[in-house]
Amino acid sequence: MKSVNSRLSAGKLRISMTLGVAMAATVLFFGASAMADEGVEAAGKNRYMDYCASCHGVDAKGAGPFAVMLTKKPSDLTLLSKNNGGTFPYDHVFEAIDGRDMIGGAHGSKDMPIWGGEWKDSGLASETALRGRILEMLIYLKSIQQ
Ligand code: HEC
Fold it and tell me: 0.85 cut: is pTM over it?
C-alpha cells in the first residue's frame, strides 16, 4: 500500500510541477508579448515624432508647426476611433498612411505625404519593412485614442 501511496503522491507532485511550469511559461509568454507590444509601440512613437509630428503635432491633435502652411488641416489622430463609432479603423489608417492606393482617389490629398511611396522609393524600406513601419504606427496611434 505504501508504495502505491508514494507513487500516487509522486504523480501528484509531477502534475503540480507540470502545472507550475505551464503557469510560469504562460506568465513568461504573456509578459514577453506585452513587452514586445511596448517595443513596437515605442518604435511607432519614435517614428511618429520623426515623420508625423511636424504636421499632426507632438500630441497628434493636428496642430504641428507645419499645419499653418497647408491648405487642409492635418487630422486629429487621437479621434480616429471616436470618428469611427468607437472602433479603431485599421484599414483606413493603414491606407491613409501608405497613400499609394489613393493617388487620384476620392480621398487623396496632396497635403499628406504618400509615405508608402516616400519610404520605398527612397530605398529606406523594402515592401515588407514598409508594412512593418506602418503597422508600428498603427499600434502607436491605437494607443493614443481618446
Ligand atoms: C506635411 C504634413 C503632414 C505630414 C508630415 C503627415 N501628415 Fe497625415 N495628414 C495631413 C493632412 C493635411 C491630413 C488631412 C487631409 C487629408 O489628407 O485628407 C492628414 C491625414 C492623415 C490621416 C487620415 C486621418 C483621417 O481621419 O482619415 C492619417 C491616419 C494620417 N494623416 C497619419 C499620418 C502619419 C502616421 C504621419 C507620419 C508617418 C503623417 N500623417 C504625416 C498632413 C500630414
Answer: no
Flag whether 111 is in a domain: yes
Question: Cell 509601440 sits at which residue?
Answer: 41
Pseudo-torsion of CA 75, 77, 78, 82, nearest 10°? 70
Asked if the structure places residue 90 within a domain, the reply is yes
Number of domains in the chain: 1
- What pLDDT, in 10s, does the model give residues 57-109? 999 999 999 999 988 899 999 999 999 999 999 999 999 999 887 654 444 55
Residues at CB less than 6 angstroms from ligand 1 = 51-52, 54-56, 66, 70, 72, 74-75, 77, 80, 93, 96-97, 109, 111-113, 115, 137
CA of 77 to the centre of ligand 1 (A): 8
DSSP state string for 128-142: HHHHHHHHHHHHHHH
CATH number of residue 75's parent domain? 1.10.760
Q: Domain limits at 135? A: 37-143
